[in-house]
Design brief:
The protein is mainly α. The protein has helices at 75-95, 106-110, 122-132, 141-154, 157-167, 177-189, 205-208, 213-226, 229-235, 239-247, 254-264, 282-291, 300-317, 332-349, 385-390; strands at residues 3-6, 11-13, 16-18, 31-35, 40-44, 52-55, 72-73, 292-294. Among the domains are: 88-117 and 290-299 and 311-409, no CATH class; 134-264, no CATH class.
Length: 409
């Protein structure tokens, strides 16, 4: 299989697409189009940022609808909306304490998928409750940012709980490189995994000089705190400015910077709209390539915004009742994540549509347990925790809701 190297990179800010500061002339030079006749994707961009490889000859998806003309969608596009609704229904069923099975979809019943809303996922819920909003821990911007970044660099609940079990309160004021390094080094020597497998953290050895990855990441946090990054983030007027501040650090690429600024935005340090800015990750790009045979000239951030803007109309078009997050619609970060999940889902439900990643199986299987989820809790500034309390911890329409017919696998 031949490959061409491409450099896609554009950000959206306040309803418009903007190019990188290093290449402001590239604003109108990005073209994305899946051409079924040629059976390949063409992407051109002059931005000097990170490169990715795109197969030049993967099979073109079958076009099934032109209702988004000039974009052309595939069968996976409709599955995107069915998947979002069904995954959200599973979430509410589990919160309500309903016994399994929670879905009639054999694919959702057999494999692990993240929630429709990123903030509802287990690790995000833990971070919001146990890392960010803690009455027993300092609440100033520096301390909150320190805790979030420390937690997210490892992105593993067990690692955070190990540090808490060792030091009691995890605070910037009492932080010590040597003491934290000792704890993490001993854990690794005992065979414990201190990093999550959710995404790969670059080792950082070139930037900080250590062989052990966790030491480089401790050095990274130290540099961020010495640079007064929390103060700069608090002063940022847009999510993209916050993204750019994080992106400037070694080992932090586009995807991690976007994830980290989203996590920090769960706190009171910043107050950006999640509809302001989005960066698609590799999984989302794969999902987009499966949902669209031709994006009609839209770049990937614009496609994600299209989904967020059209969600109500598309659920209505397909006759789907979508149980929102107590009135909060899907945000850009959620639509980005859903593209990643539908890319995985399509490996089994739509195996004829290969996409850009070329993967054909889902690795993580799901084994249901009878344990119900705790009532979810979200950033107070979203104003939905009161709605959850009034609804008794479940969706207002979910408790007595009859399952609707499933139109997908």
């Amino acid at each position: 299989m031949t490959r061409r190297r491409v450099r896609p990179k554009e950000h959206r800010q306040q309803g418009r697409v903007i190019a990188d500061e290093e290449s402001t002339e590239s604003r109108d030079q990005l073209t994305i189009g899946l051409h079924p006749d040629a059976g390949r994707e063409e992407i051109r961009n002059t931005s000097p940022h990170h490169q990715m490889e795109v197969p030049a000859d993967f099979p073109a998806p079958v076009v099934v609808t032109h209702h988004l003309a000039p974009a052309r969608s595939t069968a996976v596009y409709d599955s995107y909306w069915h998947f979002a609704a069904e995954r959200q229904r599973v979430f509410f069923s589990r919160v309500a304490g309903s016994p399994p099975p929670w879905t009639q979809s054999p694919v959702l019943a057999a494999y692990k998928f993240t929630n429709a809303y990123r903030a509802s996922d287990r690790v995000s819920q833990y971070m919001i409750r146990q890392v960010i909003y803690r009455d027993d821990l300092p609440s100033d911007d520096a301390e909150v940012c320190f805790r979030i970044l420390l937690f997210k660099l490892f992105n593993k609940i067990g690692t955070w709980e190990l540090l808490e079990a060792t030091f009691g309160a995890v605070t910037l004021a009492d932080y010590s490189f040597k003491r934290y390094d000792d704890v993490l080094t001993r854990a690794m020597a005992a065979g414990e995994r201190i990093y999550s497998a959710a995404y790969i953290m670059p080792p950082g050895g070139r930037a900080f000089g250590h062989t052990a990855k966790h030491r480089n990441h401790l050095c990274l946090i130290e540099r961020m705190m010495a640079d007064e990054l929390p103060k700069k983030l608090a002063g940022a007027r847009t999510m993209q400015q916050g993204f750019d501040l994080l992106r400037a650090y070694p080992t932090i690429g586009d995807f991690l910077a976007y994830q980290f600024v989203t996590d920090i935005n769960y706190s009171q340090v910043t107050d950006f709209s999640e509809m302001e800015f989005v960066i698609p990750g590799p999984g989302a790009r794969d999902g987009i390539s499966k949902c669209f045979a031709d994006t009609g000239g839209l770049n990937e951030p614009e496609v994600i915004r299209l989904m967020a803007d059209m969600q109500e109309a598309e659920f209505k078009r397909l006759g789907i009742e979508f149980l929102s997050l107590w009135g909060r619609p899907l945000q850009l970060i959620d639509c980005q994540n859903l593209f990643c999940e539908i890319g995985k889902y399509a490996r089994v439900a739509h195996p004829e549509i290969i996409g850009r990643a070329g993967r054909t199986r889902i690795k993580q299987h799901f084994t249901p347990t009878a344990r119900s989820l705790l009532p979810p809790w979200y950033p107070p500034k979203w104003g939905i925790n009161e709605e959850i309390t009034r609804a008794g911890g479940v969706g207002a329409r979910e408790a007595d809701h009859e399952p609707q017919p499933r139109l997908f696998a």
